[in-house]
Amino acid sequence: xxxxxxxxxxxxxxxxxxxxxxxxxxxxxxxxxxxxxxxxxxxxxxxxxxxxxxxxxxxxxxxxxxxxxxxxxxxxxxxxxxxxxxxxxxxxxxxxxxxxxxxxxxxxxxxxxxxxxxxxxxxxxxxxxxxxxxxxxxxxxxxxxxxxxxxxxxxxxxxxxxxxxxxxxxxxxxxxxxxxxxxxxxxxxxxxxxxxxxxxxxxxxxxxxxxxxxxxxxxxxxxxxxxxxxxxxxxxxxxxxxxxxxxxxxxxxxxxxxxxxxxxxxxxxxxxxxxxxxxxxxxxxxxxxxxxxxxxxxxxxxxxxxxxxxxxxxxxxxxxxxxxxxxxxxxxxxxxxxxxxxxxxxxxxxxxxxxxxxxxxxxxx
Length: 365
What we know:
Blueprint: H1 2-22, H2 52-61, H3 74-79, H4 81-98, E1 107-114, E2 127-132, H5 135-154, H6 171-187, E3 191-197, E4 199-200, H7 208-217, H8 222-232, E5 235-241, E6 244-245, E7 249-251, H9 262-269, H10 273-279, E8 283-287, E9 290-297, H11 304-321, E10 325-326, E11 332-336, E12 348-350, E13 353-355, E14 359-360
Parallel strand pairs: 1-5, 11-14
Antiparallel strand pairs: 1-2, 3-9, 3-11, 4-10, 5-6, 5-7, 8-9, 12-13
Helix pairs in contact: 2-4, 4-5, 7-8, 7-9, 10-11
């Protein structure tokens, strides 16, 4: 009984956190996307159907993670997949052809994970939700993911400064990209400032109406767009804790955590943020919802602090318009002086809060 109460306490906390953040924002100013028209020259209005061989490749190339909602372990499903291929191919192709996402695939099982081992274990605030989704649902997502990324790549719609969902990219490539830019600046006797943005529950507060408009503007229309509408609506989760499972909670915002498409959809959702950053002369690099922006400057440049303030103010405005909450308390500002003897003192005022350098990095070794 105690475990039953605890899992419902976790579920209520995770739901209320998202609701509290989302309730701060005004209704979006976007129009409902039309499902039959496109702003692109060659829209992705429908998905291609898959052969049994293609479905087999998707199944066998996927890591066999198992969700409690799976009827059988995913490694066993892979082992017997030749027998099930006709049925699985029919399920996937029916979804792609009709633009619907099966209701049974919209459920998630959430496990609370303590953020740090030193934190107080009884407090639900110290846990983050780890979402598990059915294996076949993620296989269907991979089929859509492959076609959408191919379409965006062919139409040059992918953000070159985003490493969160690209083949051959990782957190390491994102780190190397930023580090190399800072090294080049230092070699040119320039100082740099690096800002690490922190968002609160970023994936969970994505507004579906804004996301659909973003997809439509990229040329994803018709049955393809309708598929995404079905994919996002009607989702729910239950929290599992010590053998007990909570009541179901509906998800009216956000992209599914633990999903194949979640990082891609979030990256599409935030593509226009890059234009805001670059308009202030900053460079940036992203990995999913982690955004690093940086500016290199002559050590005696007096305009740096005002430029930082102006850029962060516009970023904060953009965040509110897109129903995302910038967490200023956890946003970090690092200064990299051109040489060890330099001292840059920045205090940035933003929304009745101040951001000061968390540390000064003297070298990049």
